[in-house]
Amino acid sequence: MLKRVGAILLATGVLLLAGCGPKTPTVNESMTKVMAPGAQTIWDITSKAFNAKGDGLEASKISAADWAQLESAGRQLHDRALVLATAKHVKATAKGETIMGEEASGAPSKIGHDWDAASAQGVQAMIDADPALFAKRARILAEAGDTVVKAAPARDVRALYSVSSNLDEVCDGCHQKFWGTDEPPPFPK
Q1: CA distances from 38 to 69, 101, 140 (A)
Q2: Cβ of 49: how many Cβ atoms within 10 Å?
Q3: Maximum CA pair distance of the chain?
């Protein structure tokens, strides 16, 4: 009898803990705290390492500290993108949170057209309409991050250049479909 009660208590505890697991971070939090800073780290380091022609990187221009930052940025991109790719349901924002450019959504722009980025609700609707594509795009970003992680200890500038030179397109592939644009919002007044 005591064994049975213990087993029931253990099973109940496991079920309760399963419901209390870590929550999937929002897309907005992922973008502002992980993806954008990680991508910027990759771009900043590779920008200073271009060769004279601008068609490759010079390994001698990337320090050991730079490689460590690149590896960290790649790992963060990889890990967070995989979390989003494998989540059962992805939320665009947390309650009360706004996305970059939301305040300008639909407003006239100085460059001659309305800002076409969606609101948080619009982004959520786009993700919910095609979660498989969202997961696919997140996996593509995860692969880019993984390439940087593997390039760092090997000091593989070719692999790093491949990611750095294509990272904007990787980002735009998701932004265009799930944010509504790949252009930055107008600068706030």
Answers
A1: 9, 20, 15
A2: 20
A3: 78
- Six token digits for residue 54: 């601008």
One DSSP character per residue, 81-124 reads HHHHHH-SS--SS-TT---TTGGGTT---TTSS---PPPHHHHH
User: At CA 82, angle to CA 79 and CA 84, rounded to 5?
Assistant: 115
Residue 50, helix vs strand vs coil: strand
Q: How far is CA 145 from CA 102, 140, 148, 166, in A?
A: 28, 9, 5, 12
Tell me the per-residue pLDDT of 54-105, one tens digit each, with 9 for 90 and over.
889 999 999 999 999 999 999 999 999 999 999 999 999 998 887 876 666 6
- pLDDT, tens digit (0-9, with 9 covering 90-100), for 112-147: 555 555 778 888 999 999 999 999 999 999 999 999
Q: For the whole model, what pTM was predicted?
A: 0.79
Number of neighbouring beta carbons within 10 Å of residue 108: 11
